Amino acid sequence: MRITRKHWTICTISILLIFFKTKEITRSVEHEEAQLGLMVNGSEKILGKGVPAFLPPKAGGWTLNSSLVLMIRKDILRFLDAERDVSVLKSSFKPGDVIHYVLDQRRTLSISQSLHSLLPDVSPMKNRRFKTCAVVGNSGILLKSGCGKEIDNHNFVIRCNLAPLVEFSEDVGLQSDFTTMNPSVIQRAFGGLKNESDRVRFVQRLTMLNESVLWIPAFMVKGGEQHVERVNELILKNKLKLRTAYPSLRLIHAVRGYWLTNKINIKRPSTGLLMYTLATRFCDEIHLYGFWPFPKDSKGNAVKYHYYDALKYRYFSNASPHKMPLEFNTLKMLHHKGALKLTTSKCTQL
Ligand SMILES: *[C@@H]1O[C@H](CO)[C@@H](O)[C@H](O)[C@H]1NC(C)=O
Ligand SMILES: *[C@@H]1O[C@H](CO)[C@@H](O)[C@H](O)[C@H]1NC(C)=O
Ligand SMILES: *[C@@H]1O[C@H](CO)[C@@H](O)[C@H](O)[C@H]1NC(C)=O
Ligand SMILES: *[C@@H]1O[C@H](CO)[C@@H](O)[C@H](O)[C@H]1NC(C)=O
To answer: Where is the signal peptide, in residue numbers (predicted)?
Structure first.
């Protein structure tokens, strides 16, 4: 219990600090951003009432603006250091410590022995720098894109939610250096790991990751703890070599704080936006694929929510915690400014 209170306090203080800090530097940042022309002016107005902005980003003529990339990296560093916040470390906890869920402070989680043994000793992203990175979202816009080779050609490839690759490799590629896994995926895609065939399939999928990073947001909301526990036990039992990471308790608030200073109010940043935000620390050039939060493409053809399953659209639902079209328009604006490259069309074969 002593730990509970301590962590609660630390967490509260850091949240307060973030908001205080946000407020404090909002003015100067706003001034700076206005000069940069970085500030987004009411993306939602541009979007209209749930009417998607179907315009794809310009494909040709994109150039990287390296000074803008550096400026964004520096700004984000005022809120979080992805090297540190990408994962809590073994030294932060002891088995049996109780923590409060980041987005559900009344609920708690006890750090199990197996979870503790999988916490990294040092950040899996320590001192890692890359010339070009790909952040791959899971939109059906990737189907028939032929982007697999281009994606695999990046120095570092970030993927979301353990999406299947082999059957779609032409369009999505195979290389994975960093893969996120929300606990809910275990139920949705692996039957909660309740029977042996699901467990075998899951272990096979993880084995494909070799020694790359598996990033599990285990401390966000209550609900997935038994799944995370089963995952941890399978990793240990099968002696999988992948490097597990569990995002820090402050990450989401810090990311939210950064985007707020750009007038982008996102209660719960999507995994894709989180990954872009983290990647700014490690990557000189960030290319985004598979980001398309609309049910139709620019020609009016239907687009699946995920390239690999039959999940239905929730972009405009009030129940959805994410603000996908707002996020997308932000990314599109950053594309036009040369801060990142957003690919939503077919890739020209290399
Ligand atoms: C790069 O971005 C900065 C900051 O937005 C801007 O001042 C500069 O003109 C841009 N450079 C080019 C070549 O577009
Ligand atoms: C923001 O958008 C409004 C119209 O929606 C416009 O009148 C205003 O000039 C814009 N401001 C900036 C800074 O672009
Ligand atoms: C894992 O290693 C195998 C064999 O070296 C390789 O073929 C495969 O592409 C690697 N997987 C990833 C995700 O890098
Ligand atoms: C295991 O569960 C999955 C559903 O998650 C089901 O499709 C499969 O048939 C089951 N296999 C066995 C051997 O019970």
So the answer is: 1-28
